[in-house]
Structures are given as C-alpha cells and as structure tokens.
DNA sequence: AGTAGGTGCTTTACGAGTAAAACACCTGCT
DNA sequence: AGCAGGTGTTTTACTCGTAAAGCACCTACT
C-alpha cells in the first residue's frame, strides 16, 4: 500500500545486475516492498560504474578524482576560494582538503595567498598549469559522458535529468542538516 | 550539436546543487556541451547523499556498508558463496573480501567451511545471528528509501527506474571488460 | 584592555581499501 | 609420474580519508 513502483512494469528493464538482485530479495522476503531498490540500487550502481570509468583518464593525468574535483571547483567558480570554501564545494572534510591542496601546490597546480585581514585563512587559485590541465581534461570527461548517454534519445535524457533533479532536490532538502 | 539535453527545459529543475555547478561551467566554457553533466552529476551526487544517509542505521548496528553488502549477498542468494563469488557479487577486490570475512567471522556473523574437493576454496554462509541481523536491518533500509521516494508519485518512480535501467544497461555492457 | 569563546585551518593517529606479490593448490601435457 | 602454468585466496606495503585534538587567530563582552 506504500504507493511504490511495486505495480509491475511487466517484462521491462531486464538484464541489468540490479534487477537480478532485486529478484533475489523478493524471493527471500516476499513480504517486503522492494520497489525503492529498483531506483536506489541503480543510482548507486550507475555512480560506481561511472566513477570507475571516468577515473581512468584522470589517473593518466596523475590526478585522483577528488583532486580533479578540487581543481574543477577553482576553475568553474572563476575566483579564489578558501580551504573551507573548497571543503563545502567538493563535499569533503577540511582535513582532506588540506592534504590535497598541499599535494597540488607542490605539483605547481595551485597557489596560495594569505589573507591580509584574517591571518587564519588562505586564498587558493589555479596556476596557469592547473588551469590548462583542467581545461584539457574537461572535454575528455564530457566526451566520455556523451558517448555513454548516446544510446538514449534526447527526450529520455531530459526526462532522466528532470527526474533525478527531483530526487536530488528531495535528498538535499532532507539531508541538509541531519542529526549525527 | 551533439543531440544532448542542451535543448532548454526552460525554468525547470532549479535549486539543486548540480544545476548551479553546471551553470558555472557553462559560463566558463560556453563552447562545451554540458548536457551530460545534468544527468551524470546528479547520479553521482544522489548516490553520495544516499550512501551517507543509509550508512547511519548500519553504523548503529556496528556495520560498514561494504560489510552489509557482503552479508546481504549471502542472505539474498540463499546458498553458500566462495570469497571469489562474494568479490564479484559485491564488486569489490578479493583482498577486501578476505579482510571483511575475517572481521565478520570473528563477530560470529559468518561461518567458513573448506571445500573437500579443492582445498584452496572456502565456502561461506551466514550464522543465525548474521541472518537475523540482515533481516532486522533490511526493513529499516527499505523504509528509509521509501520515505525518500515518497515525494515522487508512482508514475515518476517507475519512469526513473526504467530510465536508470537503460543507463545502467549501457554502462554494464560497455564496461564489462575495460582495458586498464 | 583583557579575556572567553568561536572560527578556520592543520596535524595526528588510525582504520580501511588497493595493487602486487606470495602462497597453496589444481590441471593438463609429456 | 612429474612439472609448467593457471586459479583461488591471503598477505604485504602503501595510500588516502577521517575523526578528534591542536593551533592560531579573531570577536565581543565586561
């Protein structure tokens, strides 16, 4: 009665790994509504496969994905960011940002400048080399993403983007400040 | 011209973090087609938030998510699995499985039995305590997932499941055996 | 002015995953 | 039978992220 997708969707959406996992759970726990798994299991699995695939070109450039995210944040915002800004922007802990920034400055991709007013804070920006690296990598990433999505027609792509946005909106609203 | 979702979708899908990130990239690189980001960025972000949220009840039970995945694989298949099977089933490395199995057997959740034919392989199964733990946790997980999705009506949920399945099918087909 | 409390960042200690090597065992060829 | 090569699992050395403590600095109250 939980109004989920238990409905049926007759023979659709066969042949992905999540479908077989869901069927296994249904066999073992016929009483539970496995509808949500059809969505959330697939989101998780898609994300895992996408990251694995997209990491390859980055590693070729000697970057981890979190490092690329950090450089990307600096590039796309267009202005300097503090470590704290970067932590929020890349959804990672402050400590992780500290270490990544250290590694990236040593490699000459990022520069730091102390704030004159508040001597606790640092301002970070890309060096020319850092900017060039991001600008070289980004088209590669997008080309791969485009090729993955090329199997879906544009209407499906838009539909997927809209539905995911709805889901994400809900997640971000609900999880903005959870109780640990 | 790459037939992506660049079309427009006028004012739709505002107010999630991915939308603002995409707008930033568009401002810096107006030449690139950022359509794929609208999908793939959201998949990644949704997965990150979902995992973070779903980890909480697991940690309360003293389990990490990979550990729960391992126990879940044993539960849903209903029969014994070898470490290799588990590695494939949970998409993790053999070494990681070895360590997790060790920890879980020490906690009395998993039992191992040597193969009589081939003495290299072990067969693993849940203890009663392991089975009970999974069976107690699973409804919690599903209830949370149901509540997250409760904002979407059933038709949207089905649509999302179908579209994600199409994407996942493509990813699994393409990435079954990549070249490192 | 002096100080208590908060903020921004970094350091430390540790846990967890990985890749590569090591190990133990099986299989098929001669 | 004996051994070369393959497979299933574990071990080792290392990397990376995290939580919690630590440090330096700012701010606002008395």
From TrEMBL, chains A, B:
Signal peptide: none annotated. Pfam families: MarR_2. It comes from the Bacteria. SMART domains: HTH_MARR. SUPFAM superfamilies: Winged helix' DNA-binding domain. The keyword Transcription applies. Keywords: DNA-binding, Transcription, Transcription regulation. Residues 36-169 form the HTH marR-type domain. InterPro entries: HTH_MarR-typ, WH-like_DNA-bd_sf, WH_DNA-bd_sf. GO terms for molecular function: DNA binding; DNA-binding transcription factor activity. PANTHER family: TRANSCRIPTIONAL REGULATOR, MARR, TRANSCRIPTIONAL REPRESSOR OF EMRAB OPERON. This is HTH marR-type domain-containing protein.
